[in-house]
């Protein structure tokens, strides 16, 4: 097995964590390709043969290890794209829903991988296209967001599901989120928590102007079309908060399931609900502490 290794240079503890992983990989006589951007963090002994671009790490290895927070995992997922390389996240951030392992768990993680004691979980990816942006596909592991950009005015978002008119949301914008993204921006806007392997995605308005503007869950086979009228000043479309475009209305965006999934390496002794309880203090009653 060959590992690809990348990480967020701004995260404290990256040097120690990467060195720890490399030591463990070499102990098991495995191969690895290190992102050139973090190669200098590894102790002497790393040859040029063991270094490469992020594309090399993401697409030419058997597993990509990403050190950082969830933003780092999202960047790694974008680099992997449709190649299907499984991603193992080591959390150097704060919350870390996607990067669930701690640096001190690296040795056990490598041993489990060598012994094939791990699971690869597939996660839904969304893609969005707009005739306003020619030849551009926005892909998202968490969410596609369409909002009012820098304007202070609310916007009207006509929403169609599989060609049928559903509702016009009067709001600051809309979040179309995967189950993975249900605990991200959508959750802060009142959207539901959705278990990550569910075959659905959600539509959640951002600060809706009416009490009847409620979140909606649709099957993953749905095609969602959103229209923003020409009365708006400017519209921003973004994918995972990392890829974006500013558009002049009228704007139309079509969102559907992508033709590939994100593959995440998951440990077998930790469930999604364990993560929820730990990260969100889910179900915690401060009166009982």
Describe the fold and architecture.
With 289 residues, the chain is an alpha+beta fold. The chain is built from six helices and 19 strands.
Can I get a quick summary?
The chain has 289 residues and is an alpha+beta fold. The chain has helices at 14-27, 54-59, 70-80, 106-114, 185-188, 272-280; strands spanning 2-7, 31-35, 51-52, 63-68, 87-91, 119-123, 126-130, 133-140, 143-147, 155-161, 164-171, 173-177, 200-206, 216-219, 224-228, 235-239, 243-247, 251-257, 262-266.
Q: How are the SSEs ordered, and which strands pair?
A:
Blueprint: E1 2-7, H1 14-27, E2 31-35, E3 51-52, H2 54-59, E4 63-68, H3 70-80, E5 87-91, H4 106-114, E6 119-123, E7 126-130, E8 133-140, E9 143-147, E10 155-161, E11 164-171, E12 173-177, H5 185-188, E13 200-206, E14 216-219, E15 224-228, E16 235-239, E17 243-247, E18 251-257, E19 262-266, H6 272-280
């Amino acid at each position: 097995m060959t590992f690809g290794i990348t990480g967020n240079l701004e995260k404290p503890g990256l040097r120690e964590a990467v060195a720890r992983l490399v030591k463990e990989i070499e102990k098991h006589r495995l191969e690895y390709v290190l992102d050139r951007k973090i190669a200098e963090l590894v102790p002497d002994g790393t040859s040029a043969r063991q270094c490469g671009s992020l594309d090399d790490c993401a697409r030419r290895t058997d597993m990509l290890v990403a050190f950082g927070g969830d933003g780092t995992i999202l960047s790694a997922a974008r680099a992997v794209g449709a190649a299907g390389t499984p991603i193992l996240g080591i959390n150097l951030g704060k919350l870390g829903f996607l990067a669930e392992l701690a640096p001190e768990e690296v040795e056990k993680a490598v041993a489990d991988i060598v012994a094939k004691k791990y699971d690869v979980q597939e996660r839904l990816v969304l893609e969005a296209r707009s005739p306003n942006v020619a030849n551009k596909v926005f892909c998202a592991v968490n969410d596609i967001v369409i909002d009012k950009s820098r304007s202070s005015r609310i916007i009207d978002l006509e929403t169609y599901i599989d060609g049928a008119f559903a509702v016009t949301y009067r709001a600051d914008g809309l979040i179309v989120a995967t189950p993975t993204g249900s605990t991200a921006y959508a959750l802060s806007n009142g959207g539901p928590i959705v278990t990550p392997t569910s075959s659905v995605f959600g539509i959640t308005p951002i600060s809706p102007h009416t009490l009847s503007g409620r979140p909606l869950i649709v099957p993953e086979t749905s095609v969602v079309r959103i229209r923003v009228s020409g009365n708006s000043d400017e519209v921003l479309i973004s994918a995972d908060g990392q890829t974006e475009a500013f558009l002049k209305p009228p704007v139309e965006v079509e969102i559907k399931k992508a033709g590939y999934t994100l593959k995440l390496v998951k440990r077998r002794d930790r469930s999604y609900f364990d993560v929820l309880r730990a990260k969100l203090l889910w179900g915690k009653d401060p009166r009982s502490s």
